[in-house]
Amino acid sequence: MNRHVRICFIGDSFVQGIGDPEYRGWVGRVLQDTPGDITAFNLGIRRNTSEDVRRRCWQEVGPRTLPGADNRLVVSCGSNDMIEEGGRVRVDPAQCLDNLETLLDDSLRQAVAPLVVGPPPVIDAGEPHLRRVSALADTMAALCRSRSVPFIATTRGLADDPTWIREAMAGDGGHPGSGGYRKLADIVLSGQWHEWIAQPQRTGG
After folding, report:
1. Which whole number is the average pLDDT over 149-165?
2. CA quadruple 31, 33, 34, 37: dihedral sign
3. Three-class SS state of 9
4. Is residue 124 one of the residues assigned to a domain?
């Protein structure tokens, strides 16, 4: 690859890699397995919802793009949106979808090529949370299809993965260790990741 690719990864604690004793998370592992001239920025923040991500996105992503470079944005959020607090979810699913739509439309308008990684499950939040996150992921995938944006589903694959479950329950109940993040990285790498990276994007500021 002769292009200079700049990738911002924005989202929640799963993007940040909380719980990984190797401090690489899935983002670091994906980057290790991606050849080319890549500058990457991890903009994950623990407990962030899609509302938080939408609010801060361009204040943080904008200064990290470079005119003439192949600028990219990876968005991954939604797990925190579907957590119940005080008898209601933190962010309504419709609002979550609106937030993602805004992120994608702004990204495409600014010639920053987006890709969405679906929300992972929070194991100790139980089956009701898994149902909500799975339904949200389906609507996210449909939105991405309507924008011709790659979407990589993670929810069900991780909910059924023994390593993800075991490490999450041995930790804080939500975040895995190195094995779980390796599994998530493998899901991303086996999705549309390499095709997305290989396709040059039109440059923008």
Report:
1. 98
2. positive
3. strand
4. yes
| pTM exceeds cut of 0.90 | yes
- Of 1, 5, 2, 116, nearest in space to 57 by CA: 116
Q: How many domains does the chain have?
A: 1
Nearby residues of 164 by Cβ (< 8 Å), 6 or more positions away: 120, 121, 123, 158, 176, 179, 180, 183, 184
Give 34's DSSP letter: -
Burial of 119: CB neighbours in 10 Å, binned 0-12, 13-18, 19+: buried
- Is 186 part of any domain? yes
Whether the CB-CB separation of 75 and 103 falls below 8 Å is answered with yes
pLDDT tens sequence across 33-51:
999 999 999 999 999 999 9
Is residue 205 in some structural domain? no
In a domain, 23, yes or no: yes
**Domain of residue 155, residue span:** 4-198
- Would you state the structure tokens that stand for residue 123, as one six-digit string? 């194991």
Q: Domain of 187: which CATH number? A: 3.40.50.1110
